[in-house]
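FIELD: query
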Amino acid sequence: MAETIRIILCDDHTVVRAGLRRVLEEQEDLEVVAEAGTAAEAIARAGELHPDVVVMDLGLPDASGIDATDAVLRSSPGSTVLVLTVHDDIGYLRRAFAAGATGYLVKDAADSDLVTAVRALAAGGEHVHPRLGAALMRPDASPAALAGPGGELSNREIEVLRLIALGFTNTEIAEQLVVSVRTVESHRSHIQTKLGVRSRAKLASLAREAGLLEQPTNGP
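FIELD: result
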């Protein structure tokens, strides 16, 4: 008999968790060991139970699912995270994987896709929603698709983010782009708001994950 895959469900809607539990526990090898309605609950349950897979929503009341993913994996390093979200967006996918998730599924996926994804992650693999997996292969799906909870970055914001990640100061960026320092500061503020990130290190990490440091971006 196959070893049981232990799962924690994190979604702030009770009815959604109930539906997910029903789908998963119809399978003999899958067991939902806990549910969580907030990021804090998911982090605590993961630290206590060390599940194989945490199914994580992005829209949580106390923190983003992206931040929760990072915290869950620090709390339970042996676990994996499958993001299950309404956001059919490459930018969110990249951010989720940058935080340590190894699966990303959109909520309109079939029940069988959820089961397949959970099993893939538990076996040490990855799983990306087929529609997004195909989009990642398109030429227009590279750095320009970078987005976060506050929306998609403009081409100019992407260029500013790339220069920030390369270590340039606001003054140096202003000189390169032939704009004022105040304009750069404004762009940086918009970038931080859109991506939901404040530290230079995290901005650099997102830029690296999006491929901005390997490929120059378009102008404004």
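FIELD: remark
Residues 137-144, 215-220 have pLDDT under 50 and may be disordered.
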